[in-house]
Amino acid sequence: MKKQEVYEYLNRRGIRYEITEHEAIFDMKAAAFIDQPYPEADAKNLFLRDDKKQNYYLLTVKGDKKVNLKEFQKNNCLRHLSFAPETDLMDILGLIPGAVTPLGILNDRERKVHVFLDRALFAAPGLIGVHPNDNTATVWMRTEDLKGLIEEHGNPISITAF
């Protein structure tokens, strides 16, 4: 799904959302310069795979957090993790670097990516800001709605503290 298809998908499911259009941003440093209506709801996404190149993970955390991968692996009983290559990102989620988003799960036909959502994103106001499979916009929605979309799509999902 491309950006417009994501909007149509959200509309068909009756999910309320707001859109902030902006220049393409490729990392959290650039996101800091975008005028955002809900900066406390900004999310950072990491697309990872294990050392056997068999299991894929998408970590979605509050934008201001740092993720300790070794601690994450240990806490979740996972093999050694590293960033998945760009080719895997495109083949599995249909995304380019800088546009990684949990909405990319909608392109995961094999439902092979396990999503980990930061528990902190569910705290008040319960909003999350993610790209609509394109890094020239941010979609603001209820975190619960995003969780429901991922569950409905069939990807494994875990809510965890980072």
How would you sum up this structure, described in words?
The longest helix is centred in the last third of the chain and has 11 residues, at 143-153. A hairpin with a 5-residue loop joins strand 2 and strand 3 (56-62). The protein is of the alpha/beta class. The strands form two sheets. Strands 4-2-3-5-8 form a five-stranded mixed sheet, sandwiched between helices. Helices cover 25% and strands 27% of the residues. It has five helices and eight strands, in the order H-E-H-E-E-H-E-H-E-E-E-H-E. It is globular, with a radius of gyration of 15 Å.
Q: Secondary-structure blueprint of this entry?
A:
Layout lengths: L2 H10 L4 E5 L6 H4 L11 E8 L5 E7 L6 H7 L5 E3 L2 H8 L19 E6 L8 E4 L6 E6 H11 L3 E4 L2
Parallel strand pairs: 3-5, 5-8
Antiparallel strand pairs: 1-7, 2-3, 2-4, 6-7
Features:
YbaK/aa-tRNA-synt-asso_dom_sf, alpha/beta, Prolyl-tRNA synthetase associated domain-containing protein, 5-stranded mixed sheet
Mind telling me the C-alpha Rg? 15 Å
Straight-line distance between termini: 29 Å
Structural class: alpha/beta
Tally of contiguous helical segments: 5
In what order do the strands lie side by side in the largest sheet? Answer: 4-2-3-5-8
Q: Average pLDDT, to the nearest integer?
A: 94
- Global geometry: globular
| Percent range for β-strand residues | 25-35%
Largest sheet: 5 strands, mixed
Domain YbaK/aminoacyl-tRNA synthetase-associated: 22-147
Pfam family, one: tRNA_edit
Protein name: Prolyl-tRNA synthetase associated domain-containing protein
GO molecular function: aminoacyl-tRNA deacylase activity
